[in-house]
């Protein structure tokens, strides 16, 4: 239950596949007030899933969650970008982060699946990243499916996250050049683990693709997140850190993938909306925009 | 000094329906973990699991388990735990997931952590109380948490009843 079809503008195919907002994929900094036996307090982050009335992120120890909306670009026709449902409508009262007194932060995130090169594909993200439709989302992610698109998204597109597909064998190999370019720009690569929990074949694809990625990027700028669709697809931060070892990350890199890299993504997303990270604008209550200097 | 060292993993089993928790028993959990390790790591994992693995403690009211693994390979066996999606117990399949809270070298350290964790959970439930009676019960349970006293059981019953009321 819990599906309320908030995306009236999505085409039917998408609506059939994903009727409710997907779980957030990126990890966010969260404060987990527990500690491992080495007495290290972990600032792990991960996106949790919010499934209508039942937020299980609270006992798991995550502090930020992003709700993911998938938007597929095809050559057929220009489709509308889904508009995010306001958070207050989805979840009544936000639970409090474990060990702190702040409530969990919930953000909106858009994942653009780029399938073929088309006039519509390069248009949104290269030329107008601050388009009004994209502004409603706090995080932008892109999922390229061909080598050329991967190269473009690493070097040119104004996104925060590049998703590595885990449901199919990678159709292209990773090259060092675009990956290093993305790392320099602050874009992170993301591996999601919810599909691995369901099926043995998916597990093989996930691990294979993740290991390929780690070989090329040496474990930097990687986040691990759940693309959970149900509350039971979530896992705790320590379990995810251990899963990173399966993907080929070292212990330190794995911990970073869940904590500090996620925090970096959040900051990157915030500065993307500003002009060089210094000036940001906010819509005032009256008509028009009002410039205000802020960070 | 030669001493056989193990790692004790403190896990919490999260289910969507709390009433299903009461049906768990340690043989079902042990079988599930062994099956998941065999699925993920094959024969090598299944062999490692047969060395010193066992379920040391299971609390059906709160869903806390202590699992013991040998120290040399606990990380490998731990990495198979996230892939558990359900537990089969007396003919029923209960969808759930394991959430690891703490890794300790001895049962005593895990127990100390568990008491601190339960105290924190009770503190978090305090603002959600609906009437004075529940508030007093929680405060009494918080004060009686200790390693040697019988506070642990009182805590867990409190935890279970409060969570049922709070949610």
From TrEMBL, chain A:
Cellular compartment(s): Nucleus, Nucleolus
GO annotation, cellular component aspect: nucleolar ribonuclease P complex
Main location: nucleus
A Pfam short name: RNase_P_p30
Function: Component of ribonuclease P, a ribonucleoprotein complex that generates mature tRNA molecules by cleaving their 5'-ends. Also a component of the MRP ribonuclease complex, which cleaves pre-rRNA sequences.
Leader sequence residues: none
Protein name: Ribonuclease P protein subunit p30
Subunit: Component of nuclear RNase P and RNase MRP ribonucleoproteins. RNase P consists of a catalytic RNA moiety and about 10 protein subunits; POP1, POP4, POP5, POP7, RPP14, RPP21, RPP25, RPP30, RPP38 and RPP40. Within the RNase P complex, POP1, POP7 and RPP25 form the 'finger' subcomplex, POP5, RPP14, RPP40 and homodimeric RPP30 form the 'palm' subcomplex, and RPP21, POP4 and RPP38 form the 'wrist' subcomplex. All subunits of the RNase P complex interact with the catalytic RNA. Several subunits of RNase P are also part of the RNase MRP complex.
Family: Belongs to the eukaryotic/archaeal RNase P protein component 3 family.
InterPro entries xrefs: Pol/histidinol_Pase-like (IPR016195), RNase_P_p30 (IPR002738)
GO BP: rRNA processing; tRNA processing
GO molecular function, one term: RNA binding
Organism: Gambusia affinis (Western mosquitofish)
Domain of life: Eukaryota
Keyword vocabulary terms for this entry: Acetylation, Nucleus, Phosphoprotein, rRNA processing, tRNA processing
TrEMBL record, chain B:
Phosphoprotein found in the keyword field: no
Record InterPro entries: Pop5/Rpp14/Rnp2-like, RNase_P/MRP_POP5, Rnp2-like_sf
One cellular component term from this protein's GO annotations in UniProt: ribonuclease P complex
Region named Disordered: 148-167
Domain of life: Eukaryota
Signal peptide boundaries: none
Main location group: nucleus
Keyword tRNA processing included in the entry's annotation: yes
Subcellular location: Nucleus, Nucleolus
An annotated Gene Ontology molecular function: ribonuclease P RNA binding
Keywords for the protein's UniProt record, in alphabetical order: Nucleus, rRNA processing, tRNA processing
Any GO BP: tRNA 5'-leader removal
Bias kind Acidic residues: ranges: 153-167
PANTHER family to which the protein is assigned, alphabetical: POP5 HOMOLOG, RIBONUCLEASE P_MRP SUBUNIT
Family: Belongs to the eukaryotic/archaeal RNase P protein component 2 family.
Role of this protein: Component of ribonuclease P, a protein complex that generates mature tRNA molecules by cleaving their 5'-ends.
Protein name, UniProt field: Ribonuclease P/MRP protein subunit POP5
Naturally occurring in which organism (per UniProt): Gambusia affinis
Lineage: Eukaryota, Metazoa, Chordata, Craniata, Vertebrata
């Amino acid at each position: 239950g819990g599906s309320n079809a908030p995306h009236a503008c999505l085409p039917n195919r998408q609506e059939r596949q994903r009727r409710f907002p997907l779980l957030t994929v990126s990890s966010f900094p969260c404060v987990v007030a527990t500690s491992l036996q080495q007495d290290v307090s972990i600032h792990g982050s991960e996106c949790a899933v919010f499934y209508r009335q039942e937020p299980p992120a609270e006992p798991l120890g995550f502090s930020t969650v992003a709700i993911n909306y998938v938007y597929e670009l095809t050559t057929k026709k220009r489709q509308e970008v889904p508009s995010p449902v306001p958070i207050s409508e989805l979840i009544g009262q936000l639970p409090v982060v474990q060990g702190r007194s702040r409530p969990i932060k919930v953000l909106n995130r858009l994942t653009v699946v780029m399938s073929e090169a088309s006039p519509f594909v390069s248009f949104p993200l290269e030329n107008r990243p601050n388009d009004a439709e994209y502004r409603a989302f706090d995080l932008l992610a892109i999922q390229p499916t061909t080598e050329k698109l991967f190269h473009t998204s690493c070097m040119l597109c104004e996104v925060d996250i590049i998703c590595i597909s885990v449901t199919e064998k990678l159709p292209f190999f990773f090259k060092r050049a675009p990956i290093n370019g993305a790392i320099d720009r602050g874009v992170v690569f993301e591996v999601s683990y919810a599909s691995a929990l369901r099926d043995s074949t998916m597990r093989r694809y996930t691990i294979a693709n993740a290991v390929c990625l780690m070989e090329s990027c040496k474990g930097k700028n990687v986040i691990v997140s759940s693309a959970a669709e149900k509350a039971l697809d979530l896992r705790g931060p320590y379990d995810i850190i251990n899963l990173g070892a399966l993907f080929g990350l070292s212990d330190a890199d794995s911990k970073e993938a869940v904590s500090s890299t996620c925090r970096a993504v959040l900051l990157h997303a915030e500065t993307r909306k500003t002009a060089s990270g210094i000036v940001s604008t906010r819509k005032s209550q009256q008509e028009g925009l009002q410039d205000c200097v802020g960070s | 000094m030669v001493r056989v060292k193990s790692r004790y993993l403190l896990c919490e089993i999260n289910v969507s329906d709390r009433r299903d928790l009461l049906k768990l028993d340690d043989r079902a959990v042990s079988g599930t973990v062994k099956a998941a390790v065999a699925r993920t790591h094959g024969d090598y994992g299944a062999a490692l699991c047969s060395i010193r693995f066992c379920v040391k403690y299971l609390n059906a009211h709160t869903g806390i388990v202590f699992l013991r693994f040998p120290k040399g390979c606990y990380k490998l066996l731990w990495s198979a735990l996230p892939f558990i999606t359900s537990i089969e117990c007396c003919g029923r399949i209960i969808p759930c997931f394991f959430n690891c809270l703490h890794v300790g070298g001895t049962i005593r350290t895990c127990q100390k952590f568990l008491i601190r964790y339960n105290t924190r959970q009770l503190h978090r439930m305090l603002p959600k109380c609906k009437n004075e009676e529940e508030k007093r019960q929680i405060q009494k349970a918080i004060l009686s948490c200790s390693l040697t006293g019988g506070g642990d059981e009182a805590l867990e019953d409190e935890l279970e009843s409060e969570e049922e009321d709070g949610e």
